[in-house]
Amino acid sequence: MQRTCRNAWCKQPYEVVADDLAFYDQVSPVFAGKKELIPPPTLCPECRHQKRAMLIPHLAFHERASALSGKRILSIYPESSPFPVYGIDEWWSDGWDPMTYGMPLDHQLPFFQQFRMLLSRVPRMANTNNYCENCDYCYSAGNAKNCFHCAIVHRSEEIYYSEMITGGNSNLMDCYRCQQSQHLYQCWQCISCVSSTFLKEVY
Ligand SMILES: [Zn+2]
């Protein structure tokens, strides 16, 4: 089935195939015995990707107050966000009751209207960093040290302006998707590489 993207700035043609429809049918939720069929998309794949990407607040940091303690925290969510934001340690602590935001499902109201209400009540972590040292200006960092402006950096040290850096890296800058590598600049999809620049898909 040929469709036209409903985004007024796009209007590109795209296709919805039978397998897509079968998939939407398969994942459509059932409430009180009634299947709520997910309709086929009205946006082209590229515009859908842009919409999903809007939900990933990569590398924009905001100094704001914690909704739990009022302390100043650094967060990927601005003060104007419609949901409560707690500091990372506060979010993991027992200093709040995670049962307070629960709400019963109302079968008379549209599901996504209620889902939106629920999302605006559930407290979020200021950032998703964990077990890090000096990585405040990173997003989704874990067991990392001395990293700056990275998104998804794990078990690595001295990484700058890079993304998807996982496992055993050190001294990387402007890199994407690297593992077990050291001293790289502008490398893309590399594993076990050392002292190199401008590599692409080197394993
Ligand atoms: Zn489009």
Question: What is the rounded distance between the termini?
Answer: 41 Å
Total number of domains: 3
Number of helices: 4
Bound compounds: zinc ion
Query: Which runs of at least 5 residues are low in confidence (pLDDT < 50)?
Result: none
Look at the structure and give the mean pLDDT.
93
Largest sheet: 8 strands, parallel
Specify the structural class.
alpha/beta
Q: Tally of extended strands?
A: 16
What global shape is seen?
flat
User: What portion of residues belong to β-strands?
Assistant: 25-35%
Radius of gyration: 21 Å
Q: How do the strands and helices of this protein lay out in sequence?
A:
Blueprint: E1 2-4, E2 13-15, H1 18-27, E3 30-31, E4 34-35, H2 45-54, E5 62-65, E6 72-75, E7 85-86, H3 88-92, H4 111-119, E8 124-125, E9 139-142, E10 151-160, E11 163-173, E12 176-179, E13 182-185, E14 188-191, E15 194-197, E16 200-202
Parallel strand pairs: 7-8, 9-10, 10-11, 11-12, 11-13, 12-14, 13-15, 14-16
Antiparallel strand pairs: 1-2, 3-4, 5-6
The structure holds zinc ion.
Zinc ion (ZN) is lined by residues 5, 7, 10, 12, 43-44, 46-47.
